[in-house]
Amino acid sequence: MISYRCYSIAILWFLALNNGGLLLLSNGGTTSSFIRNEEKSIDMPFDSDVFHAPSGYNAPQQVHITQGDHVGKAVIVSWVTMDEPGSDTVFYWPQDSTQKNQTKGQMYTYKYYNYTSGYIHHCTLKNLEFNTKYYYEVGVGHTTRTFWFVTPPEVGLDVPYTFGIIGDLGQTYDSNRTLTHYEMNPVKGETVLYVGDLSYADHYEFHDNRRWDTWGRFVERSVAYQPWIWTAGNHELDYSPPIGEKKPFKPFLHRYHVPFEASGSTEPLWYSIKRASAYIIVLSSYSAYGTYTPQYMWLIEELPKVNRSETPWLIVLMHSPWYNSNTYHYMEGETMRVMFESWFVKYKVDVVFAGHVHAYERSERISNIAYNIVNGECTPVHDQNAPVYITIGDGGNIEGLATYMMEPQPKYSAFREASFGHATFEIKNRTHAYYSWHRNVDGYAVKSDSMVFFNRHWYPKNESICQT
Ligand SMILES: [Fe+2]
pTM, whole model, 2 decimals? Predict the structure, then answer.
């Protein structure tokens, strides 16, 4: 079984690599020389069809969902009404029932400089059945809108589940291509792990918050139907004292609620969920994480709670990568790495997904935790207890691609390329998962980088035997 799988993966690798054009082999892994458009990406104009608001007075828009509890039996439904508060009720029912349940949510507004938000609704649907398709309705009368989602299987050891991974999406024409490629990928992601930087509204004067609204309407076609698991990036900070905006994360935290209290967190910027066979820890690169800080105290208590006999796959999301051989944002994640990396090795995190750098990079399993203040041992080394670090900030935002990389490619860097795209992580069972990266310029089914993951707890062998 495994040898056949390895053989298949080797063929896929061969095809994928050759599809990428001439490859340069350097000191480390592979730096793809795939030729791409290096022009800056341009935001889609306000009147683009993907930003179209639903018709009708006060019709709900910007509908989005995320997991609403720790295990997947709840969903947070969020939407915005622009004209008046309107109804705060969600009607929902399982596919095989005509009996509608209803739950009331809460409504919020905020002001940001000269912008006043619409009426932002958040409503948590609780006590759902696992593995069940639900329909839900928001709005009233002729503006009622109906969507659906599928709850995850019950948390368990060998439960297959497929995640999509998207980061730094923004709202350019390239962003639209990335989202379309994710939707059209024959590997069907069931939940998106989103690694931060959503709308890039802060690119505009006074952080034009109308761009938060357009982003909400743009991604609704996916996030109204499957949960996106939110991570905060630097473009969520919206911190601008010159215009009187001194409270970080104000638009993001009003618009995107997460189930942080269910994991004992005291802030929505760091939290965890279980979903199927995965335990997902979300960290905030832009909140304090030094010793004794709330995030530090939460994580040090959180990691020992992960029961690999219940959730074999341990995945961490953050925005600023720890291992990045791009010249952009170089070493910005270093201080958090120093704080937490030894814990990730001790608790055998399988994979860390980050964004921020607008390119793609996958590391070997490496760690750099031997150093203390006197021994000088500060070089990353291969470490089979360490995670694979994947930077996937290549969603396609207005800042364009990060095309300059450090040379020579460090030994720990397995594959890197500056192209827009997304990834999928297909958990097969407690021992194996199949990961692949898909760039936008390829066909929907093409895998431009891929890797078979061996679970660090249940099958902690070196995956490189599967990649040569
Ligand atoms: Fe960023």
Answer: 0.93
